[in-house]
Amino acid sequence: MFLFPHHAPADGPKSALFNFQSLLLVILLMICTCTYVRAVAPRLVDRNKAGFLGLFFMSARIGERLSPYVALACVAMAVTMIAQ
């Protein structure tokens, strides 16, 4: 590595931030998980509506209001992952 600094390192595991499909999967899983947690224990999600933890509240709202579209997105993601 030190002898040839212009060579890039070998492709290793990538973060979900750099792989678009993995990023979509993480977002879908977060929406589905937050929606489920809000259905089971609403106080847990509803008490944090602002700040960083507000992302979980917003994800739960997206899952509740757009549930048919989220379900279709989950099915589409499953099909693309099986097809790979």
TrEMBL record:
Compartment(s) where it occurs, according to its Swiss-Prot or TrEMBL record: Golgi apparatus membrane
Assigned GO CC terms: Golgi membrane
Presence of keyword Lipid metabolism: no
Short name of one Pfam family: DUF1242
Transmembrane parts of this sequence: 20-45, 66-83
Record key words, sorted: Golgi apparatus, Membrane, Signal, Transmembrane, Transmembrane helix
Chief site of localization: Golgi
UniProt xrefs under InterPro entries: KISH_domain, Ksh1
Keyword Nucleotidyltransferase among UniProt keywords: no
Lipid bilayer topology: Single-pass type I membrane protein
Entry's family note: Belongs to the KISH family.
PANTHER family attached to this UniProt entry: PROTEIN KISH-A
Function, as annotated: Involved in the early part of the secretory pathway.
The protein's name: Protein kish
